Amino acid sequence: MYININSFFFSLIAGMLTSKILDEFHQKFYEDKKNILAQNVCTKSDPLECCLSRSNIEKTNHVFQHKVSEVKPMTNQKNSGRCWIFATLNVIRIPFVKQYNLEEFEFSQPYLFFWDKIERSNYFLHNIVKTAKQGEKVEDRLVSFLLHDPTCDGGQWDMICNLINKYGLVPKSCFPESWTSESTSRMNFLLTSKLREFAKELRNIITDGASDDLIEKKIYEQMNIIYRIVGICLGIPAQEITWEYYDKSKAYHSIGPITGLDFYKKFVKPFYNIDDKVCLVTDPRPSHPFGHLYTVDCLGNVKGGHDTVYNNQPVDLLLSLVGKSIKQNEAVWFGCEVIKRFASKQGFHSIDAHDINSLFGIDTQMGLSKADRLIYGESSMTHAMVFTGVSFDPDEKVTKLRVENSWGEERGEKGFIAMTADWFMEFVFEIVVDKKFVPAEVLAVFQQKPIVLPAWDPMGTLAQ
Questions:
Q1: Consecutive sets of 10 residues in the chain, 464 residues long: mean pLDDT of each?
Q2: Which of 111, 141, 227, 346 is deepest in the core (most CB within 10 A)?
Q3: Do the strands 383-392 and 398-404 form a parallel or antiparallel pair, or are they unpaired?
Q4: Across 297-397, where does the E strand assignment appear?
Q5: ∠ Cα 62 349 432 (to 5°)
Q6: In this structure, what DSSP letter does residue 346 have?
Q7: Cα(264)–Cα(212) distance, integer angstroms
Q8: DSSP assignment, residue 368?
Q9: What pLDDT does 7 receive?
Q10: Terminal Cα-to-Cα distance of the chain (whole angstroms)
Q11: Bridge-partner residues for 407, per DSSP?
């Protein structure tokens, strides 16, 4: 049999990085003297810090035409993924502090975090049961996804509404931080290990034909162990609290004994009712048209609670509603991809934050559209924060926004970030505003039956 030796060797090396190709890369690199200078700088420093745009720093300031009544202290979620809880409580405390004439105040973030861990574990176990009954194999993508991180710290707006409507709120002095609430990885390691073990137990008894009553009895036994782990690590909230405090005039006050739910209903809800707020997202993927309601499969935290739903609208509407809300002294919860085009130390989000082209010789503009970044895994919601300020141009279009973060005072401008409107358009995906600011036709979308997105869809990443 005749073999063409030339075509044989060509097929063998096609697409391979041969020594000749690598030599060409090497030569081209050192022919450009800018590469040598860039290499000298970047091998000694943070590459993004090296290309931070000086001109952008000079034109960025933290002065705004409109600001809400911001509250101290600046919060810090430490080594945890509780941003969604911190952002929510930072919004709620603004009218609360005004009403009760407080110098500074925090609601207890670990209080909601405790209940989320308990509820999230129960929700996960019931999802395991649901998928097993549907005939999903453990190797299938859905079950594999659920098992990957069954008890993450993140969450979504509807999920925190579920917690507050079931357990209420308490002041932070009544349930303070623990070592684990500020550094959650150890507890999450224990919970993840047990939940995977419990998932196998449940799937085994379902395969053996267990009744629904037997399945629920098994989950009860499993959840007793989960409760023990979380309670040991975080402490357990008291059934009733008594809150003693001084107002700005140094007058003494006391509220309680009272449950967390009654504390919310009687002392918080009249001034911030979470049921009056609506969550809008902007997902520009062609397969997800605006004006429709979406949900993500298996995404939630409270069994029997509200589903996590997304009312998809154009990004310019979201930006406009943020401006309207802040002008009325109402802060806005939002979800974004925080790390992109971010000058962390200086505290600003700008498309032009870094002059990447001068350092690396690559285009500094967006190589992918916002829709394509979602499709190709380049973008997703990763962090929740609060809008507290806004500025407009003469035509009343938003130009920049003030952001309250939850990373302490050491980052940014004493914990605050200045964000350009252009950055908002590219990297903000979700806002929560009062119904009164939202057009009737947008509110009507909430009456639709939601379209179900797969569990791994990027619109769910803030809670995954």
A1: 52 75 94 94 92 88 95 97 98 98 97 98 98 97 97 97 98 98 98 98 98 98 98 98 97 98 98 98 98 98 96 98 97 96 92 88 79 94 97 96 97 95 97 98 98 96 90
A2: 111
A3: antiparallel
A4: 309-312, 332-336, 342-343, 348-349, 383-392
A5: 90
A6: T
A7: 35
A8: S
A9: 54
A10: 58
A11: 76
Task: List residues with catalytic annotation.
Answer: 83, 383, 405
Longest dimension (CA), the chain: 101
Q: Six-digit token pair at 425?
A: 């358009």
The DSSP call for residue 143 is H
Q: Which of 281, 285, 319 is nearest to 423 (CA)?
A: 319
Angle at 429 between CA 424 and CA 432, to 5 degrees: 95
The pTM of this model reads 0.95
Residue 286's alpha-carbon distances to 207, 291, 314, 318, 427, in angstroms, are 40, 13, 12, 18, 17
Write down the pLDDT at residue 12: 45
Per the CB < 8 A criterion, the answer to whether 275 and 306 are in contact is: no
- What value, to the nearest 5°, has the Cα angle with vertex 361 and ends 357 and 366? 50
pLDDT on residue 8: 47
Which residues, listed in sequence order, are joined to residue 404 by a DSSP beta bridge? 386, 416
Alpha-carbon distances, residue 90 vs 46, 94, 226, 328, 417 (angstroms): 32, 7, 29, 17, 15
pLDDT given for residue 363 in this prediction:
72
Amino acid code (one letter) for 327: K
Tell me how far apart the alpha carbons of residues 141 and 147 are, in angstroms, rounded to a whole number: 10
Q: What is the pLDDT of residue 464?
A: 81
